[in-house]
Amino acid sequence: MFQLRLPFKRKFAHAAAQRSSTDTVVAAALLADGTVGYGEGLPRRYVTGETVESVLFNISDTLARHLEKVEPKTFADLLDLADNLPFTNEQGRIINSARCCVELALLDAYGKYFKSGPAQIAGWLGYGVFFGPGSIDKVRVSGVLDGSEPRRLARTLRRMRWFGLRDFKLKLGCEYDEANLALVGRRLSRALQRDKATLRVDANGGWDVDTAVAMSEELAQWGVYCMEQPLAADDKAHWSVLADLTQVPLMADESLISFEDAEFLAQNDLVDMFNIRISKNGGLLAAMHLAEIASKYSRQIQLGAMVGESGILGAAGRQFLQMVPQVVFTEICYSTYLLKKDIVRQDMRFGYGGRLRPLERWGLGMEISRRDLGKYLVAQPRKINLV
Predict the structure, then answer these.
(1) Entry pTM
(2) Among 112, 139, 243, 264, which has the highest number of CB atoms less than 10 A from its own CB?
(3) Which of 63, 46, 47 has its CA nearest to residue 55?
(4) How far are the Cα atoms of 156, 167, 187, 254 from residue 203, in angstroms, in the given order?
(5) Closest alpha carbon to 172 in 154, 186, 160, 184
(6) Is 75 in the same domain as 49?
(7) CB–CB of 277/312 below 8 Å?
(8) 179-229, pLDDT tens digit by residue?
């Protein structure tokens, strides 16, 4: 287990946090024949309640006990085992980021060992909706605009437009909300009117219901596609009020942690879209299950990302898009557009216009730079012997 701090090229701010680096955990699964697979879990206390320390503890304690007799004969056997990893520890606390870290490391290691790829997950799950082509050739990465002061935001938006991006998300709940919304709305107005661009907003749970209802009126005037996580995750009592009164569609993010959350939000018709994030939701397999729930209830999907993900989670996200057909937006693979350096050898960044290339290698489809992995260590690696 490697505890890393990956520095950013510039600060990134939104309603819940402002940061110039990200703290993440990378797990390396070493098989007896020397095959190594890597996984990543990026904890956020305000999202799942996890920290780097809790991720390290829950991997070495709760999850390690489930790995003591891992002897899959096929890749399908490995998928059965990984799918049954717990989402909570013995105290009932959520361990999604820790679970994601371990699950991805197992998928990567045994994918290489069995010469298999996550694309086989679709057939193993047996969900009919996944049997067709995925979204990777259609969906485009969105330009995510933080809560910077307007002049800096204008420069960022201009660069994104020059790079051909067509979908945008603006972080609100910050100091410059009114000015930033007007700036982005004016700059995109012609493209929005011609359906050549889309604009979403994300409050990261920073509003109360009255503010969210009032803001929805202004957002509707700017042609905003949807409002993401306007209310705090624990404010379930007001979601139904907002759903009845809002003038723009709603998307759940921090309120969508578990399968039970997904069923609750969909059955009660509280949101129109799910923001699935692989680390937040417990791994690639868990994300696939959430996508199936979204399909069952005709909810649109955004494949989101934790700010500052390395190429490991970026690779897992691409695999998701290669399998899931109904993804409308994605925010993955910012890699060195935001990070000073990625720990993955390949260039994991999205291309012009937000396009993403499929990954063809075994496992998750990426290779780690051990030199860069060591460069960003903030503590000595921890080793767990399972045999």
Answers:
(1) 0.95
(2) 139
(3) 63
(4) 19, 17, 21, 11
(5) 184
(6) yes
(7) no
(8) 999 999 999 999 999 999 999 999 999 999 999 999 999 999 999 999 999
